[in-house]
């Protein structure tokens, strides 16, 4: 297995959205295609395809914080045909590799050396699971990210009525408490960028 990440153009984004995303994510969780394209075209988001050889193995969509120093994994999925074979971890590794290369050429070298960048993931909080099956699914998702170097940022957000535990991973060595604070600040700045102000106040609640 030798997975690499490639940035997706608009045609590829449309194909992945219509072919895979509509099946991989509940309708309630899936942004309209035009919203995803608006993020990528404005530079506030990126879409990546993960390839093993010439075959698509998975995909991810990120939203970039206004600071340019943090990324939220908005969507991450492995194709059904290769699930359960370690491709999820390989895709995350390929994603981090491409972000490392981008960071290497950042012109904010002093900031980069001190802080690095952080990647964040929202996972439904097991504490609010209604059923045992749901509880196990949520725990499994958290274990997946923890296995790949993410840690619990100790931040929980009720987003449109759903409680999410925020996991984070930093590219630079730093005190965990410092990264936890950064996760909260950077993710809040992302929410304020993509969620209308009139909606933010009632639908984004930090717990």
TrEMBL record:
PROSITE patterns membership: GNAT
N-acetyltransferase domain location: 1-169
Pfam families: Acetyltransf_7
Record-linked InterPro entries: Acyl_CoA_acyltransferase, GNAT_dom
Residue stretches spanning the membrane: none
SUPFAM superfamilies referenced in this protein's UniProt entry, alphabetically: Acyl-CoA N-acyltransferases (Nat)
Top-level lineage group: Bacteria
Protein name, entry field: N-acetyltransferase domain-containing protein
Organism: Blautia parvula
